[in-house]
Amino acid sequence: MTADIIKGPWRKGRKIVIPDPNETIEIEEDLMFADNLTEQIMVQLIHTMSENGFDINNESFIRSMAFVIETLKASIYKELELEHPMSSLMDIVSKVTLDKDNRMQGSIDPKVLYELSEQIDEPDPEIS
Domain locations in the chain? Predict the structure, then answer.
């Protein structure tokens, strides 16, 4: 019988990192805090919008609020030094400038947002 013999050297294996239980508990507490704070803020926001005549039960409003919820949560996560997938999008489309009094002002860069929207709307190129 013949066999294919593969010569080493072999790696010594993967290093397994065991997380610190105290750090894991702290992260879980931060996640719970962020989720609770997001919920409290959103309940107040939606209640206020409803009081001001917005139809909070239509599909468009619900979609918008889903986006707002995730951006709010991403903002809170960032302040707690946690990762959130929305953070990178927020960093791409937003910018900070200084006003005449040297105060920071945040805004959305419409050019970047438009370009990103165009890329998303483009159909996938054909693969030959």
Answer: 22-83, 86-122
